[in-house]
Amino acid sequence: MKKSVAALLAASTLFSFAPLTAYADHQEEQKKVEYIALGDSIAAGMTPYGDINKSYPDFIQSYFKRSHVKLLDYDNLGVPGYTSEQLKEDVLNNPDVMKEIKEATHITINIGANDLFRKLMTDPAHASDGIAAASANLENILQAIDKLNPNVHVYVMGYYNPFSYYDQDSQAFLDPLNNALNSAIKEAAVSNGDSYVPTGGAIDPHFQKYMPNPEDNHLNIKGYKVIAKEFWRVIKKDVK
């Protein structure tokens, strides 16, 4: 009888601790994520009315938190008004940014629109020069990221159409420039082995809903949620 009780206790002990052991193993195997966002005012979360609110990286962070991964760190390094030259300078020479890149597992980037916009405001006849500068700088940015962290997953955004409120004659000039910018961004990303994330297809047909101020080309929170969703369609493949 004593032997049977001992055997029973041994069995019950085994079953009691087995689930806890399995849970511990699951925790140890859980993928760890450190996510940083690089970019301009779109990454920073600039709204159509000039203030900063929730950005698409904030919503991507929420996606990470709801998935099975363990989010160890999240830093949004987006800066309103940033050009590709400024971001390149950060990636190459800013020790704080370089440290974050070295530690990251996932990086999102949107950059290049301000290169085009500044050229349009100062020398519209040579606006394509802004696209060429953005393309060259983005190539350098992506290559520098790979040198700092060869294993990081990088996702580069294609811009929605910021000129949707302009008249048809203006759009005949401006739309091809935006398309050319996105083509250059995509080429730089793909040639470097990174992921390109287009957003125009999700935003442009509903631009009045997501870009409600005709005097400003930034998105509202609903628009940034859409951008985050487009990123997550691609990112989630790398967090399984």
Automatic annotation (TrEMBL):
**One Pfam family this sequence matches:** Lipase_GDSL_2
Alphabetical UniProt keywords: Signal
Q: In what residue span(s) does the SGNH hydrolase-type esterase domain sit?
A: 37-226
Q: Does the keyword Signal apply?
A: yes
Record-linked InterPro entries: Ester_Hydrolysis_Enzymes, SGNH_hydro, SGNH_hydro_sf
SUPFAM superfamilies registered for this protein in UniProt: SGNH hydrolase
Does the record bear Transcription in its keywords?
no
Indicate the secretion signal residues: 1-24
Query: What superkingdom heads the lineage?
Result: Bacteria
Q: Which GO molecular function terms does the record list?
A: phosphatidylcholine lysophospholipase activity
List, alphabetically, the PANTHER family matched.
Answer: SGNH HYDROLASE-TYPE ESTERASE DOMAIN-CONTAINING PROTEIN, THIOESTERASE 1/PROTEASE 1/LYSOPHOSPHOLIPASE L1
Q: What is the name listed in the Swiss-Prot or TrEMBL entry for this protein?
A: GDSL-type esterase/lipase family protein
**Which organism is this protein's natural source?**
Fictibacillus marinisediminis
